[in-house]
Predict the structure.
Amino acid sequence: MRISAFLLFLCGTIAVTSCQKNNDVDNGVNYAVTVNYPATYNAVAAAEVTVVLKNLTTNQQTALVTNAAGTANFEGLTPGNYSITVSKELSTTAAEALTGVAQEVFLNATEPQVQIIAEGSKTITLTGSAIGGWVIKEFYYSGAPNSFYFYDAFIEIYNNSTDTLYADGLLIGNTKASSSSTTAVYGFIAEGRDDVYLATILRIPGSGKEHPVAPGKSIVIATDAINHKDDPNGNANSPVNLGQGIADFEVFFYVNPNTPDTDNPDVPNVDILHSYSTTLFDYLPGVFGSGLVIFEHSDAASLPKFTEPNTTSSSLYAQVPKASIIDGVDAVANSNIRTEQKRLPIGIDAGMNTVGSTYTGTSLRRKVKQEINGRKILQDTNNSSNDFEVANTPTPKGW
């Protein structure tokens, strides 16, 4: 009888203990994310900021808004690996109070992977830049459909400000071309560097005020400035006309004199300040995409150059400081590319985007945020995942 009572007591204890353990698992873990403004702002704690936690195994997302102390308290999270995305848009009035500059600002921050297996916390500092000035409007690199034709690539740069800007001296650069591999890692980013390493640097010529661009207008830089649809040197499958009146500048690739490039005498050439290769036959941003930036620098031709870490390649990449970058878009090969395979650091482009495949005749085009008196203001949150969409037909100088 005593043995039966003891066994009954023991079973009851085990059952209670088991339930307690299951409840602990079911309840999950608590985790606090505190968000701060950049060090140059007049406040530290960033209140009313949206924080999104994404479980990297289940893809389940949980979003909270920070309190007055800048903290979002997540409860009952399933233990595992998470990404953290933080975003905050400041109105003109709010930005002026925090920075002294009356200009709309979008701030964000991203942590690609954080292990959350027990109660804990993390502090994240926002980064961002003022909205306005030059932005990349469209990047067409995928190549013409039903062909292996890629000479119809172009870059369109848009004046997103309220003032006339001058394109003279503006610098355009692209990183090492992207890859369709889901395992390849670009060495510079893998080492956690903040700067950009460019395979090619192009410069708009001019002495200062030769190339005005009105608000809401753009300039187009073509690989080859011809009507690719109709020109005998083009391809009938190409979706774009980049001839005179459309392309403002052309990349005449004179770096390799043994393989002369097409040169349209009616369209001025950009200056080529750096190329990672002297054996190419044309300017090639890569049909898989690449990181594309526009920037300013007083002596871009003398930027330090490095070979890629952990490779045997002798190709040289120019190091551009983050502070020189005006805008960037990280165009990757497909939607399977992971964050750690990005070509641009998160501080320059918090996300990435893709046309999905090669030889699609499609481009990445920036979204229109709003329109004021007929002038389109393009969305610029410093995150190409949000700012760009796929255009089924490229639209140089159009929409």
User: Anything to note?
Assistant: Residues 41 and 100 are 9 Å apart (CA to CA). The first helix runs from residue 2 to 27.
